[in-house]
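During the no-cost extension, the postdoctoral fellow (Dr. R.K.) reprocessed legacy sequence entries with the updated structure-token encoder. One reprocessed record is reproduced below for audit purposes.
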Amino acid sequence: MVTQIQQLGKETIVLHAKRYLESLDFSTIHNYIVKVFQYPPVPKQVKYDHKRSCYVPVLLEKLPKPVNTRPLREKVRREAIYLQRLKKAQIPCPEVITLKHHVIVLSLIGETALALSLKDSHLDDLENAIAYEQMVKYMKLMYQECNLIHTNLSEENILWHKNCCYVISLGKALEPHEEDALQLLFEDCTRVCNFFTMVGVPKVITPGELFVDITTCSFLNKVGLTELKENAKKKKKHF
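Re-encoded structure tokens follow.
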């Protein structure tokens, strides 16, 4: 039973659902997160009507084609695979319960409601320092052990629960050999370093230093980045 809408995004809808199990001796409640993938809304075509002095919808001569859900199903499948890689590397993240079509059901991070993101958690200085150390470790593990780059890693896609960071929203994750993946990794590094600098964590390394710490290569070393992509292609065979 869906009990609450957690998030309404352009490409996903996140719902909180509960499942009630009853027997003669006891009853239990299981909490889940249901993530529904969708296409971004398409702006309506309009034209200016001089008689009415306003914009009006354009009447389509042909009926719109049926929506192709294959890309959405592929996104769901990729997110499930990537979450399983994170679990294998012991990176805290939601557990995949099941998936069907363009819907994926995940375990709930939290007690009875979804845990807050780092952005909304308002941690104290010690907790922020702990979160920073964890995220540096997890980013290295994602790249080195999971052969993955999040590409959208920010304080909004990291949950804080029981003194631990949980990585969520891997629908746009890429493998290092894919186009623009290393550029997006550097952007991940920038967002993470900027956030922890903003909340006052001391001695936060620069995005360039974090990139080197993760990949062992400078972002300015174009030859080295090419070698990283080639090595990542070879590594892909093991996943």
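The mean pLDDT is 85. The chain has six helices and nine strands. The remaining legacy entries will be reprocessed before the final report is submitted.
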